[in-house]
Amino acid sequence: DARVTQTPRHKVTEMGQEVTMRCQPILGHNTVFWYRQTMMQGLELLAYFRNRAPLDDSGMPKDRFSAEMPDATLATLKIQPSEPRDSAVYFCASGLGSTYTDTQYFGPGTRLTVL
Amino acid sequence: SQQGEEDPQALSIQEGENATMNCSYKTSINNLQWYRQNSGRGLVHLILIRSNEREKHSGRLRVTLDTSKKSSSLLITASRAADTASYFCATFGGGGSNYKLTFGKGTLLTVNP
Lengths: 115, 113
Fold this sequence. Notes:
The complex is a heterodimer of chains A (115) and B (113).
Chain A: E1 5-7, E2 10-13, E3 19-24, E4 31-38, E5 42-50, E6 53-56, E7 65-71, E8 74-79, E9 88-95, E10 105-106, E11 110-114
Parallel strand pairs in A: 2-11
Antiparallel strand pairs in A: 1-3, 3-8, 4-5, 4-9, 5-6, 7-8, 9-10, 9-11
Chain B: E1 5-7, E2 10-14, E3 19-24, E4 31-37, E5 43-50, E6 55-58, E7 61-66, E8 71-76, E9 85-92, E10 101-103, E11 107-112
């Protein structure tokens, strides 16, 4: 049963610290998405990749957030320095990258708390 | 900004009743998808309806799409307590290099036993 995996599942850190979240997409999927979910803003798209190339990161605060795909099996989202307003659940999702019918498969999320 | 807007924001029904959730969107789409999110979990894809389709069924789910009104509805028949979750519509523009979904804020469905 292929699944998207995310680590860590929970992270508590202090303001100013670097946070790295990791995602392993489903094998064979070539699109990877990073979302942030909060009660106030709902589900926000931060960035996404196709074939490891970034296609859109317009939803991401550029000064502190960065997203990369070092290889096809790993996507990372980094926050440096972290702030309390970054507290949220961060989801990774992957898809086959079909132009007209793509669906996304979500990981379980990383719940981040910044104190 | 989010394109899909679900209505109602919250819905509480008794087990066995039907639940209907609506979604409105603003721009043209290639397809519209519905996802479910159980508390503390990631979203799970439920059903996809293409822009040239008007209705689609999957088990107890029925989705309709009216592109002239830019709206969709999700009907869950004979609801169960296990259907308690948040339901999101997501629009897919498609074409070119656009692979992203735009999600609404969701409808929280509570099914009481």
